[in-house]
Design brief:
- α1 packs across α2.
- The protein is built from 10 helices and 6 strands; from the N terminus they run βαααααβαβααβαββα.
- The chain has 2 domains: 144 residues, Rossmann fold, CATH 3.40.50; 72 residues.
- Strands 3-2-1-4-5-6 form a 6-stranded parallel beta sheet, sandwiched between helices.
- It has 221 residues and is an alpha/beta fold.
């Protein structure tokens, strides 16, 4: 039963549960191949690198990203709107992670699992379906549906209203959007930090990847 569980866990999606950067890499490679004529006088490896830089790990506003891509590569046969429509195929490149699913299955026996994510509902829910993760989570709160975006604490407060436990852990890869508001609200925190980013205030645990979560939770709860 839920009330016998140890704690409520709040998960981010992108680059926490889902390897969004890997999906974006695959999407961009596919995009470049489909639009080779627009890059005929460009070094393809530099085109790829520029796209990755413009993306900022998905943290940049998507309208701004589309605008900047078209400014840099004006031969592309898109408007900002049609480029965004093309970009909506990104979830198709998300891969399922067998070890992650096994871990979530184990965690679901001891914890209440929930999601708190920025982004469009269509994109984020498709990523979860493609990664085969939907069934592990009791609640999924996405900014476009709730009306508030991280780091706005109102999105966190909305999720907290559905938590069954006093002990609540936020797990995410974005220090500003995930860790700072969670720490300000006195939640426990697990920072997924594969690039070893230096931060001003250290969260409760810093992990190189999500697969180390069980051990960290055992030390926290």
């Amino acid at each position: 039963m839920l009330r016998a569980n140890k704690a409520s866990l709040l998960f981010d999606i992108d680059n926490t549960l889902v390897n969004r950067d890997a999906a974006f890499d695959a999407y961009i490679l596919n995009f470049i191949i489909r639009n080779q004529a627009a890059f005929f006088d460009e070094d393809m490896s530099l085109v790829y690198d520029e796209m990755i830089t413009l993306d900022c790990h998905g943290r940049k506003d998507r309208k701004l990203f589309c605008y900047e891509v078209l400014q840099r590569f004006p031969r592309l046969p898109y408007t900002a709107e049609s480029l965004w429509e093309d970009h909506m195929s990104l979830p198709d490149f998300v891969k399922s992670d067998r070890l992650l699913k096994q871990m979530l299955e184990r965690l679901s026996a001891d914890y209440q699992l929930m999601i708190i994510s920025n982004g469009s509902a269509h994109m984020q829910r498709r990523k979860l379906r493609q990664a085969e993760l939907v069934d592990y989570f009791e609640h999924v709160f996405i900014s476009a549906e709730v009306g508030y975006s991280k780091p706005d604490q109102r999105l966190f407060s909305h999720a907290l209203n559905h938590c069954h436990h006093a002990s609540i852990v936020m797990i995410g890869d974005d220090y500003i959007n995930d860790m700072q508001p969670a720490m300000a609200m006195q939640l426990k925190t697990v920072f997924i930090n594969p690039e070893n980013e230096t931060v001003a205030v250290r969260p409760d645990h810093v992990l190189s990847g999500i697969h180390d979560l069980e051990e960290a939770l055992a030390c926290m709860i």
